[in-house]
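Subject: sequence -> structure tokens, single chain

Hey, anyone have a minute? Need the predicted structure for the following. Not urgent.
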Amino acid sequence: MPFRLSTEFDPSAPDLIAVLDDLALWSAPFGLKLLEVVRLRRGLLALDVGTGCGFPGLELSQRLGTSSRVFGLDPWRAALQRARAKQRFWRVSNLHLVSSRAETLPFGSACFDLLVSNNGTNNVDDEARTYAELARVAKPGAQMVLTMNLPGTMIEFYSTLEAVLNELGRVDHVVRMREHIHEKRKPLDHLERVLDAAGFALEAAHQDVFVLRFLDGTTMLQHFLIRLAFLESWVQLLAPEDVDAVFDRVEYELNDWARRHGQLELSVPWVCLDCRRRSNGR
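Reply:
Had a minute. Here:
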């Protein structure tokens, strides 16, 4: 087939704008590394767990081409609707989007050559069952690439919150905060044990950190990413009658820190795990 330059996309078209923001701010640092680590070859059957609005499943489908098929799985139906809109607009025929939870994968055993998840497996309800399911659907020798943020994520915020809670005598809230962090962000040695128990060999762990910078604590707490993905879980750590007092104090302390240092920085340490499905337990 002769190569043709496409001139069909109008940069001012509303339908183009509606599907253009393919990679979210939070997902980008993790996702770029994931795509770097994935080994591309022809004829793959791949699974993206927690594909959300389509990343990385949509990108991976295009990079692999039509000799491969990619399944993007997520229980978030509204996000999958947006992913389908992108898929239709970009005419990506080798991506199949499925609404399901990672703990009960609707696929046969030993069928996937490649499994990926960009900040997806750390948000499941049952971690052990999820990795057992991933092992079940992976072919022996299959590559699995996972990214996730680590326990030190936003330590600057959590240290401030802990200090405020201690000042107010809310020691039980501090315990709940630490439990919340462990539930959402597992340390690397824990992840290694869980993966090994499920039947995966960890071949490489690429660690890095990025920094979210804000003018001050007020702008941080009002940012859409914080309000969408973090703020509700922080509020739920507190007794309802304490919420206003605690967050007023936290905001004051973060603003004071920003005045003294010129800005507020929240560090996000993360890891990209390159794994292989063991054959016969080895």
